[in-house]
Amino acid sequence: MKKSLTLIIPAVLMVAPTALAQNQEIVYDSFEYAAGPIGGLDGGKGWTGTWWSGATADGGIVEVPGMDGLGGMLTSAIEHEGSYRVIDMAPLGPISDGGTLGKDGTTVWISFTLQRAAGGDDFYGGVTLNWQWNSEQLFIGSPWGSDELGIEKPWVTGPTVIPGTSVDVENTIVTRIDFLTGDDRVQVWANPGVDFPTTVADIDQLMPDIHFNEIKFGSGTGLITGFHFDDFAIHTPEFGPSLAVNNLVAGGVADLAVSNAAAGATCVIAYSLAGAGPTNTPYGMADLSFPISQLPPLTADASGVASTTANIPAGTAGRSVWVQAVELTATSGTLTNSLAMTIQ
After folding, report:
1. How far is CA 249 from CA 13, 246, 253, 255, 304, in A?
2. DSSP notation for 148-202
3. pTM score, two decimals?
């Protein structure tokens, strides 16, 4: 999901980029596809390959409109069939363990909306975190035999549910997994109203060690099939270089900084007045359109910060600008987050 950051007043600028950098989105899908079978479709962010949804590609279908106001939603259509997508682990090396998410000492946040279809009677429906070709690692949604929200580790633990919840209304489920030595801590919130809740979780328990690299959406054990899913996202605390821009005001001096870079790395900040790309680069797809300009290279200090200032010409208020940076080391380059901004 690409988010635009519109700068309003300097007081806001000093807070917004830092807040956005605390957790970064690594996987997303709001099912912005044409209505019909989802099998073979390719979209969203952070995936590798296309959706697989059974031999006939229609174990899940896209229905329009969706629940989040963006495109459609995924609806399970065949009992137990499931719709699967593999996470692109290539950019996630610092937080991966043997090609999976689950490295001890790391954290992931998983969020999505779901609702049992009107008139549906499936006994379960939800999202399963899979270790591809290995096993189902964690089920999040409505466990088998319950009309409430909850979790379980399939074939290992029984379900834990949140009393008073109902799958027959639209719900947003937020799950935090802290990967620990031994058992992992799983916290679940039903409709918390924020992306990263800090309140006491509705479920807070230790679960047997979790590793996953594939996501499955599905439901079953009913005569009338159907669970709706939308707005699926995985976030993780920042683990790579991050870009922040403050005081983007016409006639003023903007502050630009790359943080969380490797000490001594060369950082190059680039910008475009033409759009958000994508543009292919040796370091991945940049969210910048040609023509692309760049500022002089910077060197990250011992704390991993490379900062500079830039004069913003007078008379440019209202112009849009897209900004992104790359961290260069001796062997590789890593793109930062991108910012879509408006000069004030």
Report:
1. 11, 9, 7, 10, 26
2. SEEEE-TTTS--EEETT--TTS-EEEEEEEE--SSSEEEEEEES-SSSS--SPPS
3. 0.73
CA 98, 99, 100, 106 torsion: positive or negative? Answer: positive
Domain-wise residue ranges, the chain: 23-237, 242-342
CB count within 10 Å of CB 328 equals: 18
CA dist., res. 333 & res. 285, Å (int): 12
Full pLDDT tens readout for the chain, 344 residues:
333 222 222 222 222 333 334 788 999 999 999 999 999 999 999 999 999 999 999 999 999 999 988 889 999 999 999 999 999 998 888 899 999 999 999 999 999 999 999 999 999 999 999 999 999 999 999 999 889 999 999 999 999 999 999 999 999 999 999 999 999 999 999 999 999 999 999 999 999 999 999 999 999 998 888 999 999 999 999 888 889 999 999 999 999 999 988 899 999 999 999 999 999 999 888 999 999 999 999 999 998 999 999 999 999 999 999 999 999 988 778 899 899 999 99
- Give the homologous superfamily in CATH for domain 242-342: Immunoglobulins (2.60.40.10)
Contacts of 258 (CB under 8 A, 6+ apart): 241, 242, 243, 267, 269, 298, 300, 305, 306, 307, 325, 327, 336
- CB of 188 within 8 A of CB of 139? no
What is the CATH architecture assignment of 23-237? Answer: Sandwich (2.60)
